[in-house]
Amino acid sequence: MERTLGRLTEQAWERFDDYPSLFFEGRWYHSQELAERARRVAGGLAGLGVRPGDRVVVMMANCPEVGITYQALWRAGAAITPVVFLVSHDELRHILVDSGARLVVTTSEVLLTVQLAADGLDVPIVVAGDAPEGTIPYADLERADELPLVDRAEDDMAALMYTGGTTGRAKGVMLTHAGLYRASQSSQQAGRVPGLTRALIPLPLSHSFGLLTTLVGMHTDEPNVAVLMRWFDAKEWIRLAAEHRIQRCPLVPAMIHMLLAEPDFGRTPLPDLRYVVSGAAPLAREALEEFERRVPGVQILEGYGMTETCATTAVNRPGDRRIGSVGKPLPGYTVTIRDDEGRALPPGEDGEICIASDSLMLGYWHAEDATAAAMSDGELRSGDIGHLDEDGFLYIVDRKKDLIIRGGFNVFPRDVEDVLAEHPEVTMAGVVGRPDPKSGEEVVAFVSLVPGATVTPAELVEWTRERIGRIKYPREIHVVDSVPVTRVFKTDRKRLREMLKELPSPTS
């Protein structure tokens, strides 16, 4: 069977009769309506000169047109280049130039950023929503004739996704049709529970986790309903989850923390919610336990993946969960823990997580050196530190590049963050290292607190010292209104380091 995303979407459209499959901002969208629109948009894109293999940037706030555009581009044989709508115009300009984008599709909310980024470039702009002069209305694409499915090879590029770029310019990750097909199919099979068909989607569909979630829904064997949020808002999430009797939902840890900080969370009954899949960043055990305490009957299933692995690698399954782990590797993925010399380590020993799979990226776009540094002998070196237990469950310790070396001892920021998160007045913590002439690096934490908190930084220092010992505990703790996160809701350590530089150095 041909494993291309154009074929997958075609099969998904044909599998079920017409039914209301998507709810967005007060309106139901039917499955065949969405399919017909995608076929016409594919024709409209071809009319604008989009050809097989072309890259098309899709930078849109969440809306039905995001999925329609993805499916239309795969139908036309092009590769999608999704961009999270929170990027700056400078970041977007780099992506437009580096990818050689044929055109960009956007929504009116972020049009100004797109216009600034595309200034002086020969990149047409298609706008879903109010389209000013000089841009192309999305509705014009839908007036075209339906385009027949363009055949592509399984190893052709289906998506060129740019990494976050928190340590430099973002790199394009080349993902194939077959790789995304297999990854989403394995994810669907691992998480399948018959009858759980109602999902709430708050993730940016332009993030790899959001894209994977979209593709997983195409493998289902029973009609599924998705409630889509334009962007995440804790109060609105609670309202939609209750109103639509949501049964499952993907979240990232920052969203979970925002929900826990919302007074109504736990007061509004959510009796139908059974599973939350958490990914993209580590989740503190205390947050997991508090979420499950407030929503009886729900289980949080942590998973792990990278853009370079088609957004997944391992996940806890319904009925096969180990709290604290990110689950077992999915079918088609092999995880090996290696030391700095590349030797495989036994269960229980920490080392770099290395991943082998047919769903690995082809490489980084126009970056052979970076590809060679990340991949060798069919394995991807993740840059993450972790270990496997005797039963094959994977545990993430931290990012290798975020490691703090204090007095010759390794300190993983997550260890410190997890302890700080245990404090009842701390909502979120972020930890980085400060260069120090005596110890090499010193551990510094930034924390946000619950409303009305009275705990002092000195008391939090003592709290951590009592729990993780004299090597790891932070010598500095700074209270901030909110711990910064990246546009995909990961702790923004780059911004924390910038904030640290703005603070006076402590006296010795």
UniProtKB/TrEMBL annotation:
GO molecular function terms listed in the Swiss-Prot or TrEMBL record: long-chain fatty acid-CoA ligase activity
Enzyme class: ligase
Keywords: Ligase
E.C. designation(s): 6.2.1.3
InterPro entries tied to this protein: AMP-bd_C, AMP-bd_C_sf, AMP-binding_CS, AMP-dep_synth/lig_dom, ANL_N_sf
Chain ranges of the AMP-binding enzyme C-terminal domain: 416-490
Highest taxon above the source species: Bacteria
Keyword Oxidoreductase: no
Residue intervals of the AMP-dependent synthetase/ligase domain: 10-365
PROSITE patterns: AMP_BINDING
UniProt name for this protein: Long-chain acyl-CoA synthetase
